[in-house]
Design a protein that fits this description.
The chain has 2 domains: 30 residues; 220 residues, no CATH class. Helix content is 77%, strand content 3%. The chain contains 14 helices and 4 strands. A two-stranded antiparallel ribbon has the order 1-4. Strands 2-3 form a two-stranded antiparallel sheet. α4 packs antiparallel against α10, α7 runs antiparallel to α10 and α11 crosses α12.
Length: 335
Amino acid sequence: MTPDKINRFGIAAVVLFTLLAPWILPVFVDEFWVDIYSEMLIWSLLAASVNLLFGYVGLLSFGQALFFGMGMYGVAIGVAKIGLGFWPAFGFGILLSTTMALITGFLAVRLTWHYFAIITVVFSLIFYFTALSWKPLTGGDDGLSFTMPPIFSFGEETAISLTDPTIQYYFIVLMVGACYTLMDVILKSPLGRAFMTVKENDMRATLIGLNVYMIRLTAFVIAGFVAGVAGCLFAFFGRYASATYMFYHVSGEAVVWAIIGGVGTLLGPVVGTTLLIALREELSDIWEHYLIVVGVIVIVVVIFAPKGLGGLWTGMINRVFDKSANGKQSKEGGE
């Protein structure tokens, strides 16, 4: 068995667990963990948007919460203020977040290193305070709640809605899975290779004819789209939108989740998000200062696994197979 086969087997196991989670989790832990796992999947998309920029293009963004919040408000405003149905509100949230990513990216990707990180924080703060002050539209400090519209309606009495916990769970799984599949296709395409080229050396990328600015802007918009989908899903999950989720500390959490899971790996954000949220939920019942423990764990992982848990796993698998291959070569040489 090769490392690629082991990784594919691991991915298949995660997918199988995700599909069976509504039946597995209540047996071994508690039924509320199904909702927690749904949250983990949604938040992993936000971390994946950070990972797309940092892990594949080399841009560290602390403003992804802006697009997450725009997705949330797009859904909430669409339903509560405009009277849109489920799919139009979903599309409005995605359009709002992607458009905002295009506008902010037009300016932000002209910068790199800490300048880029700072300007993404500034944009996030601007719209955070705008959402707080624009109370008639956003609800201000109170946020904006809405009634869940049906996904599909069949006549006046029959409807499919996310008010059904099972439908809600599998809808989230479907949307999150579609986003990860889309990112996988993009990263394996020539565009994905262009991302990596720009990350490795933007000067050489320019010399071989790549438009570095447009490549970075494209990555920024795609990352904004992914974060917007996460925001839309979270709005539907909680039937609520709040400016709190646009604050830069939310982006900071997503950065930590991505780094712990392993930047530059497709499913690293899932690993980091799942681990840290699970630790938070378990430790919060034991000790009120649980964040100290979480912080220590994060520090230990960063020190001893700088490439994250995904990188640690890949390194272990490669070392095992390298030793096995060297052992076979030694035996053949001795014979």
